[in-house]
């Protein structure tokens, strides 16, 4: 009995973005035989070398993880409260006023 499979991702892959940069760095990886065969099979199915396949998968995983960690997800109520807090004028207390009067002890590295 055939199994129907529908992917939400495009089957086409353009390796252009991975091929345009000069590659002078290495990443070494040790895997067991089963994992290696699995990666080789998946790379063949994607019409890629194992290196290109692993780079594509690892880059996508890195992009996903970094985007997740660098994005704040708020409910509509929390977003409204956050925006209101950002737009509210700062209250200057004695400690803040004193700190603003002291000479800066750092410099910007712009």
UniProtKB/TrEMBL annotation:
Membrane-spanning parts: none
Entries under InterPro entries matching the protein: Ribbon_hlx_hlx, TacA_1-like
Q: Name one GO biological process term.
A: regulation of DNA-templated transcription
- Give the highest taxon in the source lineage: Bacteria
The record ties this protein, via SUPFAM superfamilies, to:
Ribbon-helix-helix (SSF47598)
| Keyword set, alphabetical order | Toxin-antitoxin system
Q: Does the keyword Iron apply?
A: no
Has the keyword Transcription regulation been applied to this entry?
A: no
Q: Which family does it belong to?
A: Belongs to the TacA antitoxin family.
Name listed for the protein in its UniProt record: DUF1778 domain-containing protein
Native source species: Mycobacterium lacus
